[in-house]
Design a protein that fits this description.
By secondary structure, this protein is an all-alpha fold. The chain contains 9 helices and no strands. Helix 4 runs antiparallel to helix 5 and helix 5 packs across helix 8. The longest helix is centred in the middle third of the chain and has 27 residues.
Length: about 200
């Protein structure tokens, strides 16, 4: 019988899943998702291959589990960061800064774009997770338009463009360079959505 990690079977399952997610994330930094096997993931996680199947029937299910977990963690962190921030401009600044901290779970890998190697059903599920994050931005922009901070605009297009800008940014590791990059990104996005205080200035 395999050794139980943690104090209970529930903890064991949760910790094993975390090991699998970490292994997948690390492997995808070096090679494309299509080049990774379940055996690779099991070896990197330090678990038996059968342990993987106890949690996920296939590689795409593991990827979905990982992205679900990362999205839930990120949205929780984002919502906590937004608590008590009432001004839509400051909310947007907070959103941009949180995006800079986000582990790039939707753009992890070298190699082919995930959309070219995943089934249509899995692609749709990934899109659903992206929408969860987009809804927060849509809410911020809607509030900003309502109070006159941002001009009327096509929110669907704006949300897509802002998130494309943020997801494509490579944020430096050096603290001073990182801060400058984030400030430049903030200024760019605020101008792009037509922030009134910048227009007035």
């Amino acid at each position: 019988m395999p050794k139980i990690i943690g104090g209970s079977l529930h903890e064991h399952r949760a910790q094993t899943r975390q090991k699998l997610f970490a292994a997948l994330s690390n492997l995808m930094m070096d090679r494309g998702f299509d080049a990774i096997s379940l055996a690779d993931i099991a070896a990197a996680a330090g678990v038996g291959r059968t342990a993987v199947y106890n949690h996920f029937p296939d590689k795409e299910s593991l990827l979905l589990g990982f992205i679900t977990h990362e999205t839930e963690q990120y949205v929780g962190t984002l919502e906590r960061a937004l608590e008590g921030v009432d001004d839509p401009v400051e909310q947007l600044r907070t959103y941009i800064r949180q995006q800079a901290q986000l582990k790039r779970v939707f753009h992890l890998a070298p190699g082919p774009d995930l959309r070219t190697v995943l089934s249509r059903g899995t692609q749709q599920r990934l899109r659903e997770h992206a929408v969860i994050v987009e809804d927060t931005l849509r809410r911020i922009l809607t509030a900003g338009i309502a109070c006159g901070e941002f001009p009327e605009q096509d929110l669907g297009t704006t949300v897509q463009l802002v998130n494309a800008c943020l997801s494509g940014r490579l944020i430096p590791e050096d603290p001073s360079q990182r801060e400058r990059a984030i400030e430049a990104t903030e200024a760019f996005v605020l101008r792009a959505v037509g922030t009134q205080e910048l227009v007035a200035g």
